[in-house]
Amino acid sequence: HAELIDAIVPKLELILKSATPVFIAKFMDACVAIDTPELDTLFQLYLQSSTSDASSLGTFEPADSVSVLNAALSLQHRAVVVRLISQLGISVGESKSTQFINALSSIIANGNIVPLLGPQKVGGQKVATGVKRDELSYLARQLMEAASSLIEGGHESDVQLPSLFAASKCLLEVAATYATEEEAALPPAIPMAVVNNLMDRVDLMSGTEVATIICALPYFDLSSCDTSQMLQVLLTRLSHEGEQCPTKLLSDAVFSLGELDGRIGTHITHHVAIEKLSDQCVDNVGMWTSGKSICRLLYGFSRVACNKRSLFNVFGTQLGKRPLLKLITRDDIALAMSAFGNAKYLDKELYDALAEHMVSIADDLNPADLTLVLAGYSRLNLLNTNLYQRLGERAAAISDQIPAGAAAKILCAYGHVGNEHENMASKLLAQVSENTAQLDANQCANSLYAVVQMNFNADSDHLDALAKRIETDVENLRGESIQKVCEVMQELNWRNDSLLRSMAGRSIQLSNGEDNGIKPEIARAVLDTLGLFMVHHSDARRQLSETARSVSRDPSIVAEIAAANPSAGEAAQIEG
């Protein structure tokens, strides 16, 4: 039809100058159906002639907006998609049509909206695409609310839940890329009508549909629904139908389970279903031909405490094959090393190959990569001076980009293996101490302990900042963290009466608690530290002495107390 198109294009060029929204919708449908560069070029010129990014498109009717969105996504017209996102939030809220909601959800879920609207790289820098984060989140909320209304209105079997969840995930995933630490995007809740409808219909879903829904869960606020029951039915169904899932989708689903922040494992059936799923993966290992999928799968299983030797042996061997190993990216390797560390699984040859690659690209690593690799490597107690040195240099170079929580984990990794890296330690400790509000008491305690393990001479200002945060958040301080801080105070001969009294009070609370009280070693550490600095705390002596009696006093502490106070030292020796 080349001659016909040549004849039509000049006329279209004139018509588009005053085209109505209905005409634009039909025109874009034609662009998709005919797929000719002349029409696409014409529409690009039309957009460029618009005064403000497709603002002249006007407002579309709901049915037309679905057609236009489908065409814009197919043709990769970002300006049109951005324009429609703001309109669709209102259209969805006003719509009572199941057909409209299902069609819109399906198009968003399958339209590659994430790479189109996510930040674009220009000259190595991320540049926003013009879409507003709040509009994306609003549209995702409106989709869920509209589905809830339709379900409550008697259309419970008509709403396509997998497409609904997949579309919401796509929108929220793009919104998350534009979130900042100061203004993080608040995840929407899943309406109870949708949750109940999902649990009623899950037995009729395929493994692919269940996996699609699971992939979306980390993007929602699950605190308002019965998470345990919902996850139980989803996991049970996935364990029965998992073999029918494509490996990429299944790996994404398992990865998403690991991102649910400890919600997996609240019920015994969770573990049963997850172990059954892992056995299916092992039985079908030959189908896993993507290194990226294997890395994500292992990371997800390790995060939900599924650390079966058979799983890691089989997939570790599969990942070590040359064709797979050569194609995995930096992010994939970071996930794999973290997974092996979480599971305490060591394939020395494979791990050395992964570590060597990370050292070679150390200058390209981002904060997330550094945190995952170093935490995983240190958990296996592996000593690799070259890796720790190069990654430490990289961490120091980008210290201002590393969040306080990640910086604390990196310090703990170096402390765990006793590796000294003064430049890295000084910069990350400064980052941690300046942003203690982002940390809890246990993270601050772990950072203090890591400083001692690294033999790093920290500034007193940094120590005081961490101590102050521990005092303000002492209600959340765990027993193991109390013991670590006591060891730090003893090792550095660092006196901080207010911190010590706060920890003693917290130890008393733990000893009176219902969760097995407090361990004798922790009670002993608190009493020894009180004695070393001659801080009187009668309640701690009375409440903790009986528990601590089963643990002998550290001879070095007894000697120090004796040197400082002979009479107290004699009493300490008798008690010891």
Radius of gyration (CA) equals: 29 Å
- Principal-axes shape call: elongated
Strand order of the largest sheet: 1-2
Strand content: under 5%
Biggest pleated-sheet summary:
2 strands, antiparallel
Distance between the termini: 98 Å
In terms of quaternary structure, what is this? Answer: single chain
| Total number of strands | 2
Percent range for helical residues?
55-70%
Tally of contiguous helical segments: 31
Taking all residues together, what is the mean pLDDT? 85
Query: Unreliable runs, pLDDT <50, ≥5 residues?
Result: 50-56
Structural class of the helix and strand makeup?
Answer: mainly alpha
What brief labels describe this structure?
576 residues, mainly alpha, two-stranded antiparallel sheet, elongated
What is the gist of this entry?
By secondary structure, the protein is mainly α. The protein is built from 31 helices and 2 strands.
Structure explained in plain terms:
There is one protein chain. The chain has helices spanning 2-15, 21-34, 37-49, 62-75, 78-94, 98-110, 113-117, 133-155, 161-177, 192-201, 207-216, 227-241, 247-258, 268-283, 291-303, 309-319, 322-325, 330-343, 348-360, 367-379, 385-397, 404-417, 422-434, 441-453, 460-472, 479-492, 497-511, 520-532, 538-548, 555-564, 566-575, and strands at residues 120-122, 125-127. It has 576 residues and is mainly α. Helix 11 packs parallel to helix 13 (247-258), helix 18 (330-343) runs antiparallel to helix 19 and helix 21 crosses helix 23 (422-434).
